[in-house]
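Bug #2210: token dump truncated for Peptidase S1 domain-containing protein?
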Amino acid sequence: MKAVALLGLAALAAAGAVPRNATAAEAQPRIIGGRPATSSEFQSTVFLYMYDGVSSGGNVCTGSLIAPNVVLTANHCLYKEGSSGLYERYVAADFTVTTGHAAPDLSAGITGGYSVSQVIGHPGFTMTNLKNDLALLILSRPVPSTIPPIKIYQGSYTTKTPIRAAGFGVIDPVDTSALPTQLMVVDLALGSSSFCASIRTKYYPGTQVCTDGTGGVDTCVGDSGGPLATPYKGDYALLGLTSFGLGNVCAMSGNPGYYTYIAPFLDWIAQNANLNVKDIAVGTPSSSDSDNSDDDDTTTTTSRSRSRTSTSRSSRPTGVGSDDDDDGGFSGIPGLSIDFSAIFGGGHGGDDKEHSGAGAVRAGIVAAVGAAAALLF
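Reproduced locally. Full output below:
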């Protein structure tokens, strides 16, 4: 999503809840406090580039293959700021999906990759509080069988359950000079329901989880939509996806990251992606509706009945509206990204398509970018 004015960026910083997507030329090294992914882990994690149609600029997010032709990502990654200042949704042709751990060289342009034939956002998504923040991208062709999709975890968990995040986001939100090289991972810890709610009043324990706010480790800008996974029978299973963080600086002690909890949405995912739940999920589902417990030794369980959808009452584009329990967190300026299209020319690939960029650097905009990065992160 694009926020081209520093005034808008300041409003977002004041609001406190910051979506963790990024723009193409903003892509710096990865996840904060983590390490490069090994060749055998998170093979299902993909790099998402969304071409915004302006000077070959675009946004960057992360996603997970849950089937050979289906990517699960964050719903807020589907939006950009239009010329009128209102948020507009990307169309399928704007997306390029790349596989593998190596990050594309965005300054040289993206060639190849996978195009997207259909974009499906959850109808209950609200940008004002990032509720129901998940979406599906249907690829125009499946990935090879050598790239195994990740399964969705629908079993029980506790605050002691180990979790690991992966993504193509920043590791140093202040240093905007280093370009990315590969996927990064970081080990995190789940926060209790009461902790998550104490930090953010509009926390939805049925469909969100948060981390415990340990300093020095976090997901950040560019990681949006990426996996929050837990070990399962020698592999990883998808517990959540990166949604947003609080505070102006990623990885600050006491500022947790918030993640869409995926199991409650299994029926919606299966129906809209033409998949069977039994083929994409692992773990034993529970009929309990309990949420994150404050007792580390008490099991947290999930019911998919919580995936009931709601409809936005806003006149803004579908999925960008507010709902009755909106806390006004974004004050009408829901997204975070800086327009880097004038800094780097970017190419937009996806099968046989490509857009070439000018590659020009404008010193004034570079200065603005540095100021914005210092303000927000």
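Output looks complete on our side. The chain has one domain: 6-376. Marking as cannot-reproduce; reopen if the truncation happens again.
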